## 1
Amino acid sequence: MQPQRIRIPRRAVHGVLLLDKPLGLSSNDALQKAKRLYRAEKAGHTGTLDPLATGLLPLCFGAATKFSQISLDADKRYLATLKLGITTTTADAEGDVIETREVNVSHERLQAACERFTGPIRQVPPMHSALKRDGKALYEYARAGIEIEREARAVTIHAIDIVGGENDTWTLDVRCSKGTYIRTLAEDIGAALGCGAHLSALRRTGSGALSLAGALTLEQLGAMSESERDASLLDADALLADWPVVRLETEDAGRFLTGLRRRTALPDAAHVRVYGPEPKAFLGGAHISAGELISTRLLSPVEVQGLLASPELNPREVKAATP
């Protein structure tokens, strides 16, 4: 007789979790573990971290998933450890060694090499990546020994600072645009130095306005009560924290939530976050063009108003859904 499986009831959970992803776990595996801990009906992550990478992985629950693309498109920050003198098949520590060379690199030489890759650059995505070609990830072709031609992509490296290291091992603080492959950057810096390199460790420390400060591990979440886990969630507008604020009075807020454009004297802006008259009545994201406030992504009236009007809901659910 088969043992009976216990079905754990799901619930509506709204907010953003700053997860400190562990080594060896895929982003989706980390998401599913957190989703089970919260018993959440709906959840998503905001950008993949390789299993060999650790650090900041913002997870969105419920209404916050509407704004996950904002974090996906945001600039990122990493601590990257480079191992000089060794190149690998994957440009990181997971691959087989291709070549070993002697290393004679000073801080000054490394700094000069890093400066060559600061600013707008073009990168060829690595074969061992999740980019799709004809419905298959590039790493699937790579594992089959098939090399696929890839076009270089434009990315921006805002800054590279050397934060420590010596001899053949150095740690860099990298601030970059979305879509930057730090493995490729490590490989390119090694090539510029003439000794080769691969990425031996990677930790994401920032994504847009979010940082590792206050991030929790899965172990910490597992040791919490459900109410403590709920209290650890940030409100959905945390993903837009570096956008200017626009506040509307009650009548305009209601019309804005239906998708209607509102007149404004504010200057043009590519991104703004919009609130109703209450201090934390977050309505959604918008842009301003030619004197009009135009919505780009909204919470539903139910998410903004209905939860407040439902006395049976617990305070955390109300707070999270109406930031």
Note: The longest strand covers residues 153-166.
## 2
Amino acid sequence: MGEKRCEEHCLCREMEQLLDEQQRLAFEGFRFVCEKIGYDTIPFVLSNGKCAFEVFGRTKKGLFFTTQVFRLENLDTRHGCATLSLLLPVDMDGHPVEFCNDVFSLVKTDNCIMVDLTCFCSIKPLSPKLVNRELPIIEPKC
């Protein structure tokens, strides 16, 4: 089987741009700019054209979850693949939820997967403000 060329696939170019913007957002690679704005992730959903890509992950407490939301960690343009970390969708109480329901925050995890980018045809970026968004403190009513 021949070597895949990332530049032949539109999604690879999109992922290259996403990684570049994510690095600039996090001020990575700057020599003189060191101020952090609090965002270092552009979360996104991948699709094969029919449905969103979904995987299982595991929290530090050992609970399993499913997610459709990822962070691009590394891109291998030579082989057309990417390393993605899983983002855990949670509600206002910090409990895992399905992505389509009541997502308040996307929590970074240590779970990573490698994907073949030729299997996907679209990417939908989400707001960086969702990542590790602080949960509200709800005072009990007296």
Note: The mean pLDDT is 86.
## 3
Amino acid sequence: MPQKKAVPRRPRADAARNRDRLIDTAKAMFTEGVADVRLEEVARRAGVGIGTLYRHFPTRDALIEAVYRTEVETLAHAATQLAATRPTVEALRDWMHLFVDYIEKKQLIAPALNTIVGGADAVYARSGELVKKAIKDLVERAVADGHIQPDLDPIDLLRALIGVANVASGAGWKASAKRLVDILVAGSRPGA
């Protein structure tokens, strides 16, 4: 008689909530500027025991990576949601504004990411794939609609925004980057 394959069990609802709470708490600590996030403090603030934290994240690196991946996955998922609910150019513009927010969060967590044993290259590579696919899909929709020039390279839009974030580290860089989004989108329109 053939053996049945074991189907992975979905985590219990309370376990999933605990995991999400731990990620949200660690993210909030990074946002507060806590560069050296201590696992014990994350568990305390999340209202769970340290054993619960270690069941989900056996190392500090695993927690840092989960926080970052969650941000990237949220950004990528937003592209799908915007594409389903907004006109093509508005979806692209709105997503690019979210990308600016993502850059800000990435700048806050970057010091911790850079402490990951073995480096963060694999984490960055996967996130880069998701982000590139998201903007590529949004641009292709806008091009197909005739609202964006067909020769526009979606990666050029990302490079422009990343460049602003890397050059301008002052308090107003984020507002400047969001204004740049509007300029980039307007300049990408046919006949612009």
Note: The chain has eight helices and no strands.
